[in-house]
Amino acid sequence: LGASTVSLLARDRGRYEPLPSAHRGQIRDFRKGIDTPEPALVIAKGKPDEATRAAIDALGGMERFVRSGERVVIKPNAGWDRTPVQAANTNPSVVATLVELCLNAGASRVVVTDNPCNEARRCFTRSGIWKATEESGGEIVLPADHRFKQYDLGGVILGKMPVLEPALDADRFINVPVAKHHGLSKFTGAMKNLYGVLGGRRNRLHQKIDESIADLADFLRATLTVMDATRVLARNGPQGGDVADTLEMNQVIASQDPVAVDAYACALINLSAWDIPYLSMADRRGLGTASPDRIQRREVS
Amino acid sequence: MSKISDKQQNNKWNKLRLARRISQTVFLILFLGLIVLTAGITGGSVKTGSSIDVPYPVEAFLDIDPLAGAIVLLSTHTIPGAMIFGLIVLASGLLLGRAFCAWICPMGTMNHLVAQAAPGLRGKRRVEANRTRPYQKIKYVLLFGVLTAAIFGSAVGGLFDPICLATRGVSLTFLPWIQWALGGAVGTGMESNTGAFQQAADGIYNAVGDIFQYKRGVIVAGGFLISVLFLAVLVANRFIPRFWCRGLCPLGALLGLVGRSGTLSLRKDKDACDDCGKCQSNCSGAASPKPGDRWQRSECDLCLNCVAECPNNALVFGLAGYKSDEQPWPDLKRRTVLAGAAAGAVLVPAMRTGALGSPRGRPNPECIRPPGALDEPDFLDRCIRCGQCMKICPNNALHPAFDEAGVEGLWTPVLVPRIGYCEPTCTLCTQVCPTGAIRSVTERQKMGRDGEEMVRLGTAFIDRGRCLPWAVGTPCIVCEEFCPTSPKAIWLKEEETEVRGKTVRLKYPHVNPVECNGCGACEFVCPVHDKAAVRVSAAGESRSPSNELLLDRTSKGRGDS
Fold first, then answer.
1. Nearest CA in chain A to B213
2. Confidence band for B323, pLDDT divided at 50, 70 and 90
3. What is the rounded CA–CA span in Å between residue A170 and residue A99?
4. Closest Cα of chain A to B318: distance in Å?
5. Each residue of A178-191: pLDDT tens digit?
6. Exposed/middle/buried for B1, CB within 10 Å: 0-12, 13-18, 19+?
7. Rounded Cα distance, B27 and A58, in Å
8. Has residue A211 got a pLDDT over 80?
9. In chain A, what is the straight-line distance between the N-terminal and C-terminal CA atoms, in Å?
10. Which pLDDT band, with edges at 50, 70 and 90, does A128 fall under?
11. Which parts of B243-333 fold into alpha helices (H)?
């Protein structure tokens, strides 16, 4: 009862101030002032927290991406009312480790936010992300009507859409997807994870899902993508529900290039990057490379 | 008696009256607090991975309600767990009559507040409004009707139970209003384009938004009627104080009847009375406290106003045994009692003659009950329409029925997937139902895991005339993405087809009724925004042996059923 009372009081304390409207409707490039790291793609093996640390180390440390005093948004996949073992959401240890690394790099504030598909509080609670974030010093900002603002995404398909503004109100944006099977887009990872900053009737985007995903990756260019592939949902995605649907892979993949991360990770569930239309679209638009073999890549453990 | 002892006497009653007021305040705050807390149980930072449970007995006031307990006892011949606490209030009735009404009952206190706050009735009008009147007998007729209906297998009497009335009224009327107003305030603040207002608005949300969950302010059809009638009950107090309590409340009637041999009596000293009328003017039960009138024991709620107000000490409460000039038992004609009982008896079969939704007719496809709901006749045996399940639902999926469940099913809970779907792992409504109309269900049972039989609310059906891939050759399948079962109850078949002269590959959704649990997530997210292209009907609901869909619903095979 005590813990539950605390849980009732310990709620979303994330602060949010709307951005001036002039800031809306331009490409969000959170990579400004950061060189492409070498190697360009790191695959770290191990437990969620260790692998995350190893991956960031191999990219040159979090200090390369987050400078002192900067505000950081971490965008995990907290989309579903599922527990960590069901692998429908990003592993909470991966999120917590990144929050710590950002704070150690001098970040002034680390916000963890997402606009889940299921009821938001349940998703953040049962995914373990709420607890992990607060314990590691980050703030959870839940989606609420007033936190969405109309943005012009300026894409081929995506025009004006309500966007979860706390997700964009930062100097650095770290995209922390989980690798999963998806019924329509076949694979969901880094690029599809950005759906979570959208509000409104995003269920219509499925009619042009590949173009939408590419548009979104064009609009929002994350500082860094850290993909959780410690446990991969190989079927019945993106929601899963059965532990038997998951495969233990013990990998964390990090890169500045979300297309390369997706192209690498889709192979984990036996897909080829060229079978996934949004990856080739993104490649053609110059958002990244859909041939991860061609970029410098390193495996660490 | 000397003047001083009069004063001391009055002081004593004044103190006791203060105690009554404190008691009312405490219980009302407790009642409202439990309702607000119920709305806020959806998660938090402390717990992880485990199921989200109700940490407090939020239905406590219903558990101690002996009328609700009596209804369920008569209709099911059993008493669900915690409702045994109703005996405490019943015992209080035996000793102190209707003291519960003026000291504890939150509905009574709300009525009291509306009547007393800046009282509209003064002077002679007020004295007259508080005179014992024949309308006060209606509640006994209602009580007999409610109890007879229960004997005939219907808990429909919950419509008149004061605790149900208060719970339903506050949680399905006031809370949605507060939610709506909060949403408006926060939204307006945000649109102001002034930093200070915007921060204040976000601050409001952070402070109370989670508790009031202002996004969930929607209550459908039956809800409007709840609002109107609840307001009518409150406004009536401006004309006749505590009109509900005196005239209609069947719980008050029950306590009045069992209080016949109560321990306290009002002793009246006619010689000391100077006929000032203060006792009657302040009598909350219209129980004729004035010396010379016959004190109505069954109407008195021991508010103690008469003894505290009397300037001449002409009234005192003392232990019974003193033969006072009183009416111990309401003056009911046998005919009146029989009429009430007959009404209750006739009502049940009359209500059940409906063709759709009534237990005797065909099930209504829109009568989708919460997970764990008993089969319809058993459900109606127990559901007292308190609204707890609707209040706690994190997705605002449960709503008070209007006609979905037939006439009898007014304000019983139904799932409206277009407004909210049944969250796959949530079992909150099954934890708060005080009567067991919704039995307790675990997450594993709900999802059909670990060998448990899946709890089904119904089955989804695809409307191929509206579904985007089927009807207009456009890719979609959001329903499949949202389908929470594993394997998914919505499965896809990819086919090459010609759409307006072009050959395209499309994924077509199909429903596997073996896997479908009727949660309504597909209907909720279907992008055909008004009337969904995939809709859940109650067919195949696991609670009903007669509304079964498949010959073999236990096989777990996919597509080969």
1. A144
2. low
3. 14
4. 43
5. 999 998 888 999 99
6. exposed
7. 61
8. yes
9. 42
10. very high
11. 243, 250-258, 278-281, 305-309
SS3 (DSSP) at B510: strand
Q: Which of B53, B492, B525 sits opposite A183 (nearest CB)?
A: B492
Q: Are B102 and B108 in contact (CB under 8 A)?
A: yes
Model confidence over B357-403: pLDDT tens digits? 666 678 889 999 999 999 999 999 999 999 999 988 888 899 999 88
Contact list in B for residue A122 (CB cut-off 8 A) is: 42-43, 52, 394, 423, 425-426
CB-based contacts of B554: which residues, under 8 Å, 6+ apart? B453
Q: Strand pairing of A160-164 and A148-152?
A: antiparallel
Q: Which of A83-97, A150-164, A194-208, B47-61 holds the top average pLDDT?
A: A83-97
Query: Does B209 reach chain A within 8 Å, measured CB to CB?
Result: yes
CB distance B480–A122 less than 8 Å? no
Whether A1 shows a pLDDT value over 60: the answer reads no
Question: Tokens for B532?
Answer: 């969904």
- Those of residues 363-422 in B touching chain A at CB distance below 8 A are 394-395
The Cα B282–Cα A230 span in angstroms is 72
A13: nearest CA partner in chain B: B206
| Helices assigned H by DSSP within B60-205 | 60-63, 66-76, 86-96, 99-103, 106-116, 123-129, 138-151, 162-169, 175-191, 195-204
Q: What is the mean pLDDT of chain B?
A: 88
The HSE-up count of residue B380 (CA atoms within 13 Å, CB side) is: 24
Q: Is B206 on the interface with A (CB under 8 A)?
A: yes
> Which chain B residues are Cβ-neighbours of A126 within 8 angstroms?
43, 48-50, 52, 425
On whether any CB of chain B is under 8 Å from the CB of A22, the answer is no
3-state helix, strand, coil in chain A (%, to 5): 40, 25, 40
Q: Do the Cβ atoms of A183 and B507 come within 8 Å?
A: yes
Q: Is B389 exposed, middle or buried (0-12, 13-18, 19+ CB in 10 A)?
A: buried
Mean pLDDT score, A223-243: 93
Minimum distance, in Å, between the CA of residue A182 and any CA atom of chain B? 7
Residues of A in contact with B197 (CB under 8 A): none
Query: Nearest-CA residue of chain A relative to B184?
Result: A146
Round to whole Å and give the CA distance between B449 and B443.
8
What is the mean predicted confidence (pLDDT) over B492-502? 91
